[in-house]
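Appendix B, example 12.
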Amino acid sequence: SERATAGVRSIKTCRMYIDKTLDFKEDLSSKYMVFLGRNKKLAVAQKSVAAALFPGYGVKLIDFSTLRQEKFINTSNKQLTDFSIDSNESFIVTTSRDATCKMINLASAVSASSFAPHAAVPLWSCSFDGERPFNLYLGAQNGATYIFDTRKNNEVVMEIAEPLNPTPVKNIVPIKKNENFPLGGFFVVHIRGIYFYEFLASGEVASTTLNLNEPVAMISYDERTEMLLITKSPTVEACKQTRHALMKLVKEDGIPVLQEIFSFNGTSAALPQQSRPAQIKVPDGLIVASYLQDTKVIQGRVPTGTLLCEVPISDHITDICPIYIDNVCWFGALSNSRFRVLKLNLGY
């Protein structure tokens, strides 16, 4: 749409290259990562290296400037399905389809608290809320979303369910307040279907079923662009490729609606390994980076859909995340056994 792409016409060229690499020396099933802007660290969900001493899975912290592996926080004997770090970067919560969610102090690596809905139900997703620092959201296998207050772990503040959609909650994405949503809200992404819950002055939430009918494979949200990057699963009807769509939440006639900025093809459906793309806000626009398994490249695009740059990567990339430091544009790219820093040089 004209409005959405008006500010991005000035990016003419983009060179993406591998700036540095950290080799984990073995396949650690590294799946997801988050960049901690305050502490300049990366948090990576992966398998324990010292499996004999500490079997299981957890989160490794890596110093960004030196790529030194600092500590591993063991959280579960099962693979992590989700993790979230609070806005002060003091605590981490993780889910592994266990019936409890642990909150762990990042500095000491000691468990601070644990949260479990009264129904002993496997938890798939978790998220802190930057706007409401004591809110913790947990998404369950039965399709329910539970809101806890982190100061009192034994009581559910609110339970939300969509009776017509009991599919597991894969992601919960809080958004910050803006002119359309003065009190903010959060997305709840089910295996099938995506909902938005807007906070009201009464303290309750208004629920909207969003206009996205295809199954969602993965999702990432960037607070700086305020947009969702959604990867849709290939469906039986159109079984050719995954599809990525950059979408903005707007209000039309008072109702929250997802407005598509642009979409593009991902990996062939015959190659089902998942890879999460990412977006990064740059001066005068944004760049979307995605991994194409068919040709083993990471591609960079602008919101007109134009492909600007590619960098070949030999091993399968599981996750990409933006790294914001001092107006320099980097992406982190994660595979099972490696972490790479991709640098962007933009020409205007």
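Residues 1-8 have pLDDT under 50 and may be disordered. The longest helix spans residues 2-5.
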